[in-house]
Write a structure and sequence with these properties.
This protein is mainly α and 351 residues long. Helices cover 60% and strands 0% of the residues.
Length: 351
């Protein structure tokens, strides 16, 4: 009995000693390594176009406004000369590039498209990869939700601006015939060679800057408010200018259409077909002005080539046009048998 009591006391003493040496439970909990909270990835930069892209879009918008507002009610040779300078004041490369920037502003008004592109950018590295995909293949932009809405807005904006030039050009061309009844219109153009040289030089230049248009376009590129353009969804395939506008809009939605990437992106914005169309227009304009002498002939050249034909190139580039299939071969031509010569039944009598 005494042995059992001694053993029990010894166990109690040992347990007490262990409890004294063991750290408390809350201390054990504090000593475990805690999971490290991962910092959230930074959101992509705000959607929008940098200042240089906005300057391109503004120059295009201002050019269309300026030229389409040329009045057909001209009353002097000076009026005609002003119209020639305004309408011919573009280089084909500059006009097509700036048209793409303007179309991108319109495309950024498609909220679903912008949100879809931004949702794909799960990290800064992923954002860079998407930009590279877009640069290597503009059609990649069509894979995002809402791309058809964005394309519809870009097409509507570009075709509307092109059609403004076409309709205004038709009025100027028609006025070239009516003003022939006015004496001033028959006067010879002063310094014909100088006028032609100035127009030819403008064919390789940039559009006139329009800084007063930039801020409104900056707001539109951020969709607050968007450009005053309404359009339905436009199914693919897209015209070259619209496709490149969609490409630039996707990059802008990621916040990557920056001045640092301007030169790289600017190259991808070129539309060879539209540029070729406009170069032919410029050639026809130069040839027309080379032989024009009185003011009414300059009016004709301006209305037909510098305005109507230029606008038609812009509309064509914004539309996907497929050459119609050749017509099926028709039936073979009927075989026409030669008529038999009538035989003469007259008798020849000897005299």
């Amino acid at each position: 009995m005494l042995f059992k009591q001694s053993a029990r006391n010894a166990l109690l003493v040992a347990a007490s000693a262990l409890m004294t040496l063991a750290p408390p439970l809350d201390s054990l909990a504090r000593s475990r390594p805690q999971p490290v909270a991962e910092e959230p990835l930074p959101p992509p930069p705000p959607a929008g176009l940098s200042d240089r892209f906005l300057a391109d879009a503004a120059a295009y918008q201002a050019y269309v406004e300026r030229v389409s507002s040329i009045s057909p009610a001209m009353a002097s040779g000076a009026n005609v000369a002003d119209g020639v300078r305004a309408a011919a004041g573009y280089g084909p490369r500059s006009l097509t590039r700036d048209a793409v920037a303007y179309g991108a502003v319109a495309a950024l008004g498609a909220a679903t498209f912008v949100a879809s592109v931004r949702a794909a950018a799960t990290s800064p590295d992923n954002r860079k990869i998407i930009v590279q995909y877009l640069l290597s293949n503009p059609n990649y932009a069509t894979s995002f939700a809402g791309a058809d809405q964005a394309a519809g807005l870009a097409k509507a904006a570009l075709t509307a601006s092109g059609n403004r030039l076409v309709e205004s050009g038709k009025l100027i061309k028609a006025a070239a015939y009516t003003v022939q009844h006015q004496a001033w219109s028959k006067d010879m153009v002063v310094d014909q060679a100088g006028r032609l040289a100035a127009v030819e030089a403008a064919g390789s230049g940039e559009l006139m800057a329009a800084p007063d248009h930039v801020e409104a376009l900056r707001s539109a590129a951020g969709a607050a408010p968007p450009l005053p353009v309404t359009a339905g969804a436009e199914p693919a395939p897209y015209g070259p200018t619209v496709l490149r506008a969609l490409q630039l809009a996707a990059i802008a939605a990621l916040g990557e259409a920056t001045d640092d990437l301007y030169d790289t992106l600017r190259t991808s914005m070129q539309d060879g077909d539209a540029e070729a169309c406009l170069r032919m227009v410029r050639l026809n304009l130069n040839q027309c002005l080379a032989v024009a002498k009185p003011h009414y002939e300059d009016m004709f050249c301006t209305g037909q080539h510098a305005m109507t034909d230029t606008g038609a190139c812009l509309v064509k580039s914004a539309s996907y046009q497929v050459a119609p299939p050749p017509p099926p071969p028709g039936p073979p031509p009927p075989v026409v048998k030669p008529k038999a010569k009538p035989t003469s039944h007259k008798r020849h009598h000897r005299g």
